[in-house]
Specification:
This protein is mainly α and about 70 residues long. It is built from 3 helices and no strands. Helix 1 crosses helix 2, helix 1 packs parallel to helix 3 and helix 2 runs antiparallel to helix 3. The chain is elongated and about 45 Å long.
Length: about 70
């Protein structure tokens, strides 16, 4: 079976919401999928997943800052 990882499910949902509001609504599932693929390619450990979530957060935050500047 798969190992149980100590991760916050709500954090993933927060990233999806940020993507939906920062870019467009369809960005939410694409963002979470991309973060999952990136984490899996990096090895799939809790640390890899957290790094992918952190990167997705940074990208979403940057998109929000750019939109607010317009």
């Amino acid at each position: 079976g798969l190992p149980v990882l100590d991760l916050e499910f709500a954090e993933g949902l927060d990233r999806a919401g940020a993507a939906a509001h920062a870019v467009v609504l369809p960005a939410a599932p694409l963002t979470t999928f991309s973060a999952g693929v990136a984490a899996g390619l990096a090895g799939g450990s809790a640390k890899d997943i957290q790094a992918a979530i952190d990167r997705a957060r940074a990208v979403c935050d940057q998109a929000v800052r750019e939109q607010e500047g317009n």
